[in-house]
């Protein structure tokens, strides 16, 4: 069956949306309501750091401080993509001391 002209048009229109939805699913984990930044922190940062270490800087670092810290971790080998870098920095810079579930 040959796709109709309207279905090709719709595919062309929805292609970028599908890619965006796919990235969102990848970052959030299949319908999970966990914020994307938290997902990446739990996956990438906790390989080397316990939550206590991460939480030690929450509320002490501003956005610029988190940018510097995250960039240093990436330079040291943290497995974080450029897109994930942004959501991690957004998420960490918005946290407050004692925020759950990350910080006890």
UniProtKB/TrEMBL annotation:
InterPro entries: Cyt_c-like_dom_sf. Keywords: Signal. Gene3D superfamilies: Cytochrome c-like domain. Residues 1-21 form the signal peptide. This is Cytochrome c domain-containing protein.
